[in-house]
Here is the input.
Amino acid sequence: MAQKIYQFKVTLRGIRPPIWRRFQVYDDLTFYQFHRVLQEVMGWYNAHLHIFTVDGWQITDAETLAEIWEDGEDERKVTLKKHLRREGQKFRYEYDFGDSWEHDILLEKILPAEPEVSYPRCLKGKRACPPEDCGGVWGYAELLEALTDADHPEREEYLEWLGDEFDPEEFDLEAINKSLAAAWGK
Here is the structure.
């Protein structure tokens, strides 16, 4: 049977205007491999724990599963196509249990693989991923407020931490796809 391509849209919850990505992967990726793709397309650093929740079922690493959840599966042993079978299906991905970055993921399309196309690939997106360890949705809102207010008492501290490189509106599709190609050996 020919491999199928799953096209997803992932949106970071609780942030307006939204931060999102549209990307494509093979349907036979494990959830662990999918986690690695999400890290690349969103811009996270893979420094924290994570979990998928699909129809109330938890999928995560074996250690976290054993410590926290009884009902679930090891992400290295289960593929996307086992749990994701229809266009329009939605599920959740949480990254960093402290900052609690929740992502809504929508399976937009199931497509045939295109010859000469390398997967995974990112198609589109909006806005930069928040910096790691900034305090979740509320901490990120405070950070953005400080960056836009020259008189904010914590502005200089944030600028020193972030450097001059952080632009919350930036989205670099080419850089994401280069990162995906490097991570997937293409």
